[in-house]
Fold this protein.
Amino acid sequence: MAALLPFILFPTYLPLASQIAIAALFAISVDLILGYAGIVTLGHAMFFGLGAYFAGIISVRGWGEPISGLLMAGIFAGVIGYVVSFLITRVQHLALIMVTLGLGFLTYELANAMPWLTGGTDGLRGIRTWPIFGQFKFDLWGYTGYAYALAVLFLCFLLSRRLVNSSFGLALRGIRENVKRMPAIGADHKGHLRLIYAISASIAGLAGALMAQTTNTVALDSLSFERSADVVVMLILGGTGRLYGAILGTIIFLVARDQLAGINPQYWYFGIGILLMVVVLFMPKGILGFLARIVDRRN
């Protein structure tokens, strides 16, 4: 119900609200591997960008139906994620960060080197998204875009919530806490990590495809390191290992960015840096974890 309030209270901010919903979906995808499986990544924008470019390219080539394009983009990103997961599960700690970072840079430069397909530094042009179910057009004010992004976020949130509360989700938490002990109780830890990484990549691809379909633009920044770093900051602000934390952190980050950029477009990261330091120093489990601790003390 709270997510529907922008339709009534802030109709002029619906484009921002749709970007918040898309970024929250991306944050949930990262939380599945970082907060629940313990896979630290600084290159997950690779899958966000792959989903965006896939949806954009098929639209440029003549297929702009949003729902089928969205599903195909998610499947494509998930398949790439599963292939990459065999490399991810071979390394840990600092080497894992370097591998994910390297894959992100590699994908970015690959897209930059293929302007005939991706548009290069100019971005992908000519994207045309058809009306949803042939009835609901993507309007300039963002009503359809926000409703569409919100519906996808809601469905993926329910799926992720079901996933992390299952026996599979409990196994992921065990792997996060002590990856060496899990094989001793018969858990296929590498198989679990490969599967959750592919699921996470697929959800990130859905988020990227949503961005391409709602804005009709795809640029190289969809694959950038900044996008990967920003989503980690969102999780730190809201709290990792808490799906609601991913949503809360996204809202705080993007609203703060919007307001700070309005005050000073050049130095808005300064304010984000202060906010991040305060949260890390005084709320190490994120804002949601801090609120949960207050509620527990009162009970």
User: Anything to note?
Assistant: DSSP finds 13 helices and no strands in the chain. The chain has a mean pLDDT of 90. The radius of gyration is 19 Å.
